[in-house]
Design a protein that fits this description.
This protein is mostly helical. The chain has 2 helices and no strands. Helix 1 runs antiparallel to helix 2. The N and C termini lie far apart (41 Å).
């Protein structure tokens, strides 16, 4: 969601010449990408944990 909101702010900032709004948009996009990366890392960690658990049981 942050990426989409950020892209909108960036575009509005560019169209209106508002450098601050454009920078806020870019920052929001970076935050969105960071959140996605954290979620993906968590998903991978869960997969590894589940895999190890199955190995211990078998």
């Amino acid at each position: 969601m942050d990426k989409l909101k950020g892209k909108g702010k960036e575009v509005v900032g560019k169209l209106t010449g508002d450098r601050r709004k454009e920078a806020e948009g870019k920052t929001d996009q970076v935050k969105g990408r960071a959140k996605e990366a954290m979620g993906e890392a968590g998903d991978r960690a869960e997969g590894v944990k589940d895999s190890l658990r199955r190995d211990d049981e078998g």
